[in-house]
Amino acid sequence: MTHVPEITLTEEGARWLESAVERVRADARALDALFPAAGRMCGRGPVPGAPGWTVDEVVRVRLLLALPRKGAELGETLFELYSHGDAAERAAVLRSLAALADASDLGEAGVPIVRDALRTSDTRLIQAAMGPYAAANLPDHTYRHAVLKCVFVGVPLAFVSGLDTRCDEELARMMADYAEERLLAGREVPADVWPLVERHPTVLTRINALIGEER
Amino acid sequence: MRIFDPHIHMTSRTTDDYERMYAAGVRALVEPAFWLGQPRTSAGTFADYFDGLLGWEPYRASQFGIVHHCTIALNPKEANDPRLHAVLDMLPRYLAKDRVVAVGEVGYDEISPAEDEALTRQLALAAEHGLPVLVHTPHRDKAAGTRRTLDVVRESGLPPERVLVDHLNEMTVAMVAESGCWMGFSVYPDTKMDVDRMVTILKEHGLDRVLVNSAADWGRSDPLKTRAVGDAMLAAGFSEADVDTVLWSNPVAFYAQSGRLDLSGVTASDGDPITAGGDYAGNTVLRGTPA
């Protein structure tokens, strides 16, 4: 399955997941109790080879893939689940969006969830929001501000999808302005700023002229 | 001194408090759902409040090295507002969450029929979800309210060791001790219990099933009262192990009955993780030497 890392569960965990998937397939409302229980039943450790992902997130995404819903209706179910979720559940809904776009015709129906997460101050949610789904579906202006917010709150850009194709000159300008603001205040500039600025030589030339050798 | 504050409303406190609590030895706490200074008027504001207890507040606590769990319930005062009865229907969804370690605060405020119904329904939900219960005792007519609370708990069929009866004083401690429930004491600057009376009660009743909390909230209160009790216990001749029993092991034992207590993030004062004792009845609890 693309966008969902492989995990190895204990025998007990695997059995629980298998039966939970069957129950969700038969009745979406079963998720209300099963979705929160995923971490307790299957573990919460990091997933080897998939930076940022945890086991409970993968398990929760598998449950969401079993939902017998598509498109806008699926988007509504996801938003409801996200709204009533704790931080770990919310992160899992955010991480599921790319897989559900592929498998369940989610389309743009998951965008309101990404926008909600980007309004929070919780770096775990902001990081989970900035996966391939956000890269594919956020409008330019929103995407640029989301990347700037990541730099601002300390989410490493290594976790942000789509920079290769979506870092335009306007985003580089915003980053350069941010760097300038930090330098004028005598504060450190986050290292993640520079690779984006360097993609756009005109922006780089301007900021270099301003800061000289300080960098 | 490592401290687990089993009852504190961090939503009403500042980051300065978190810093001072960490410096005083607080490494874990439980934030019960309760009323705010301003009465709420719709179930939606409760959903937002519960989401905060499960989302933003544990995140904030973690940035200061403190592990945050919560309890979820419709409190007795607001159970009297018919517009809020829908909160009871919302509870099963929240009681399924990872960091919810009890149903609470439930109990009595003015001791009304609506409070009776809310209490009975929530005791049944606790049994259904396998969660212990944190019971608030009323500020007014406390002894009568506590007696009635114990009767309702007995009728619910919940084992007394899964029930914590809080805000006790000299008038109510004996009946709760006799019931087999856990005894909670809220140490406040000038109401409820104070530090010296608390030490006297510990001398008279022993340490068994006793929890001490600051119950700090938006009123006049002090999040460092747990530490003050620990210091006063040492000054009165209790050992460090006694202090650790009251301020750490007892709250851990009570909330671990949920099977959801996760103390794997607890660190010693030098910032290194405390050696974890591994899984204990589904909890990741620390059972090693005190930090």
From TrEMBL, chain A:
This is Sugar phosphate isomerase. NCBIfam families: EboA_domain. The lineage of its organism: Bacteria, Bacillati, Actinomycetota, Actinomycetes, Streptosporangiales. It comes from Planotetraspora thailandica. It comes from the Bacteria. InterPro entries: EboA_dom (IPR047715).
TrEMBL record, chain B:
One of its GO terms (molecular function) is metal ion binding. Coiled coil: none annotated. Pfam families: TatD_DNase (PF01026). Keywords: Hydrolase, Metal-binding. Belongs to the metallo-dependent hydrolases superfamily. This is TatD family hydrolase. The lineage of its organism: Bacteria, Bacillati, Actinomycetota, Actinomycetes, Streptosporangiales.
